[in-house]
Amino acid sequence: MSGVGAPDFFYREAQRLGYVARSAFKLLQIQKQYKLIKPGSSVLDLGCAPGAWLQVACQSLGPLDNGGSVVGIDVKKVKVPSLHCDARVQTVSADVINLPSNQVRALSPKQKGFSVILSDMCPSVSGITTKDAALSVELGMRAVDLALGPAALASPVNNSDSSTDSGVLKPGGHLVIKLLESQDAQEFTRICKPLFRKASWLRPKATRSSSREIYFICQGLKG
What we know:
Protein name: rRNA methyltransferase 2, mitochondrial
CATH superfamily: Vaccinia Virus protein VP39
Number of strands: 7
GO molecular function, one term: rRNA (uridine-2'-O-)-methyltransferase activity
Strand content: 15-25%
Distance between the termini: 39 Å
Number of helices: 7
Organism: Citrus unshiu
Largest sheet: 7 strands, mixed
Structural class: alpha/beta
Family: Belongs to the class I-like SAM-binding methyltransferase superfamily. RNA methyltransferase RlmE family.
Active site: 178 (proton acceptor)
Radius of gyration: 17 Å
CATH topology: Rossmann fold
Shape: globular
Helix content: 25-40%
Number of domains: 1
């Protein structure tokens, strides 16, 4: 589905199926293609407002007795949606840019980190292409910093960072980052590809035709 009719289709489908936003279909497609979230997964959703990805993440965990958890962080206060979510979902109101990694790790089960990190963070679009792209890269790099630790940004092959500075993504874990298409976005490939088993780009079908959104999907953190 693409073009003018696509947004209307996904908007109507979201309403029909009880999702709080059409963006649910982006994660549904990612999950269908890559199967990142499994029963028992611990999921961190950065930029979780309005909650559609929380819904899909919780659904992907399966029944409540499968275990797992979903933690959403956003600068806005986000109420956990009543549909498709259960007691495994919680939200935190905080600015991810300034949130220390040890506080993020403390939100994970037994403070051992997360098996899946989803970053759907996006800047308030100004319409100035270069400015918006730069802000998008900044948010994306913050997600990488949280997931992998500062050493990953300094040197892709440096594994000597201390446990206090290490990222909150578990070995074998997966990372998804939303970006706005730009030349600088390719920097994520340079940084992340050596650290993951597989890294690829995806433009979900539910993306509006006028949008430059693209998702960087990293599978299987080496460690």
